[in-house]
């Protein structure tokens, strides 16, 4: 069985969108990603997971979706209503949904390390790197490297001007043929050649 899959070839849920060439690696059934790695993702909540193109997701990456939230306005966060027996009487779904954080969005060319966890409603911008076992609970800027629990910015991959130029060039939207013609510049961090190729 393959240990690496292009995610958009195995995703079946309409609430998960994955761009071309984004892959997930797992020696144990990588094709089961949407069931094993996207957690508490319920249709009635309505949140989406959107992942861009050319992302690399390592084994055990998990996305916690908004369905994991519990009501926090009372004295208890215990979900009495889900057990029935009369405990559902008086439950107001808004007590849970009012705290939802919206869609989870991963940009393009993002590398998420082994067993990292992304919390609900987080945006990880283009070019970012998430370290292994990190817990991402705040937005990650473009080309930032984050690590830890909670994930903190360790450094940026490039200076501000280079980041701005890379975001403007957005090579990940190029055709596969154009990318192939410019791979040396992409791999070799040759910004002048990338600029010229635009």
3D architecture notes:
This protein has about 200 residues and is an alpha/beta fold. About 20% of the residues lie in helices and about 20% in strands. It is built from 6 helices and 15 strands. A 7-stranded mixed sheet has the order 1-3-6-9-12-14-15, with no helix packed on it. A hairpin with a 4-residue loop joins strand 14 (about 145) and strand 15. The longest helix is centred in the last third of the chain and has 10 residues, at about 160-170. The protein is elongated, with a radius of gyration of 19 Å. The model has no long low-confidence stretch (mean pLDDT about 95).
List the helices and strands and how they pair.
Layout: E1 4-6, E2 16-18, E3 23-25, H1 33-36, E4 38-39, E5 49-51, E6 56-57, E7 62-64, H2 94-97, E8 104-106, E9 111-112, E10 117-118, E11 123-124, E12 129-130, E13 135-136, E14 144-147, E15 152-156, H3 160-169, H4 176-181, H5 183-187, H6 191-197
Parallel strand pairs: 2-5, 3-6, 4-7, 5-8, 6-9, 7-10, 8-11, 9-12, 10-13, 12-14
Antiparallel strand pairs: 1-3, 14-15
């Amino acid at each position: 069985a393959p240990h690496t899959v292009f995610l958009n070839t195995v995703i079946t849920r309409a609430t998960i969108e994955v761009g071309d060439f984004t892959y997930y690696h797992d020696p144990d059934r990588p094709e089961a990603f949407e069931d094993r790695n996207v957690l508490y993702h319920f249709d009635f909540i309505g949140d989406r997971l959107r992942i861009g193109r050319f992302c690399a997701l390592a084994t055990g990456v998990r996305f916690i979706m908004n369905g994991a939230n519990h009501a926090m306005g009372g004295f208890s966060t215990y979900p009495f209503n889900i057990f029935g027996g009369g405990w559902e009487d008086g439950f107001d779904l808004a007590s849970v949904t009012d705290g939802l954080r919206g869609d989870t969005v991963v940009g393009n060319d993002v590398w998420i390390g082994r067993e990292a966890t992304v919390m609900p409603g987080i945006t990880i911008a283009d070019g970012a790197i998430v370290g292994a076992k990190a817990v991402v609970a705040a937005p990650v800027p473009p080309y930032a490297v984050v690590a830890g629990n909670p994930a903190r910015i360790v450094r940026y991959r490039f200076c501000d001007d280079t980041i701005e130029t890379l975001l403007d060039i957005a090579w990940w939207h190029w055709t596969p043929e154009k990318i192939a013609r410019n791979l040396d510049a992409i791999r070799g961090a040759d910004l002048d050649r990338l600029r010229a190729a635009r």
